[in-house]
Amino acid sequence: MSQDYPPLALDDLVHVMSPSPAPQAAIDDPEVPFRIKSSSPEPVQESDILQMCNKVMELRNIDNGNSKLSLREKELTEMVLRLTGAVRPDSEQLVRQAEMISALTQQRDLLLRQGEEQRLRWNSEKDGWARMAEALIAQQAKNRSVSGRDEDAERLHAVLEADNRDLRQRVNKFE
């Protein structure tokens, strides 16, 4: 079945479309230089900006106020000059700044982790001290109760001995 149909060419599958309503120039047109657009998201380089400015300036110089350019074209040349005249940050500077931001973010994350570990260590140490204090308080309370019992027993013993002496003396009186 595949032998019945000729293979498709790339032009049969892909049609180049322009987002603008103006007709698109043919690729074979020698008047329009064909530029392969970069797929890189890099900003426009300074050399490209200068080249655009020079082309716009040539258009303005050719016109010399003779209104060969339409109002829209004049507006477009002014827009291009304003946009290309703006100061753009250097891509290398942007890369350095991004690396610095990344390094500072990593350092911040490290400091946050260290702070959290230190806080956990302090809480653990605080809990250890609290348990030790509770144990000492319980031991002291136990010693107090034991010593209190001993004192009570000694008092009771002294009272009983005194009673025994009294009773012996009474028994001795009656005998």
Can you walk me through this structure?
The chain has 175 residues and is mostly helical. Helix content is 69%, strand content 0%. The chain is built from 4 helices and no strands. Helix 2 packs antiparallel against helix 3 (71-85). The longest helix is centred in the last third of the chain and has 84 residues, at 91-174. It is rod-shaped and about 155 Å long. The protein starts with 9 loop residues before the first helix and ends with a helix. The relative contact order is 0.03.
Helix-strand topology string: HHHH
Structure annotation, total helices: 4
Question: What gyration radius follows from the Cα positions, in whole Å?
Answer: 50 Å
Low-confidence stretches: none
Mean pLDDT: 77
Structural classification: mainly alpha
Q: The biggest beta sheet, please? A: none
Tell me how many strands there are. 0
Strand content: under 5%
Query: Helix fraction?
Result: 55-70%
Basic shape: rod-shaped
Distance between the termini: 145 Å
Give me a quick take on this structure.
By secondary structure, the chain is mainly alpha-helical. The protein has helices at 10-13, 46-63, 71-85, 91-174. The model has no long low-confidence stretch (mean pLDDT 77).
Secondary structure elements and pairings:
Elements: H1 10-13, H2 46-63, H3 71-85, H4 91-174
Helix pairs in contact: 2-3
Key structural traits:
69% helix; 175 residues; single chain; mainly alpha; 4 helices
